Amino acid sequence: MAGYGSGDRMLGRVLWMSALDGTRPSGIPEWVSPVVPVVTQAAVGAGHWAAGRRQRALAAWASAAGFALMAWGLGTEAPTRAEARENIERQKDLLRERGIPVPATAEPTATPMASQLLRYVPALEVAGIVLGVRSGLRNPRRLTVLAIAGEAPTAVFCALRVPRAVQRRRPRIAAGAALVAAGAVARLRAASAEPLR
Fold first, then answer.
1. Are 125 and 33 in contact (CB under 8 A)?
2. Which residue from 78, 77, 89, 101 is spatially nearest to 15, judged by alpha carbons?
3. What mean pLDDT do residues 86-91 have?
4. Taking Cα atoms as reference points, which of 35, 69, 60 lies closest to residue 174?
């Protein structure tokens, strides 16, 4: 098991922090992923509003606005993929200077099969929108363990992203992450207010 100051543990922390920072999308296929939750949550909000569930609609729209702010922040405030790699290498060099052994990471290379599969990512993302809207409107309307398990990862990740973005002076990402976390909590509150059927 890795000790507290081991290189594996420290490298894991560096990688986790870089995941919280995010990277700037560089092409249309990379932009699809940050935009999918915006479209999904906006459509779910419209569906809830039409069905008369105002509290759920406002929660979904808050999340949509938060995801839109985060996408905007990724496009303007986040480092490029090359800058993110440089930051990770710099952090690894600092750890090595302190005498902490850090494993070398290989450069990612795209295999022909992976390159071929990347062509289908936009189609899969569109299918994700359709399925996300469907499940957003058909999820149980009461507060259940499944509802909590569905909202918790997004709420926790975004809640952790807020202080990191504030620390890095990235206001759009911080505000967007706060809105997404608030939207997740609001959806859970709306579910707890639903009458039992």
1. yes
2. 89
3. 78
4. 69
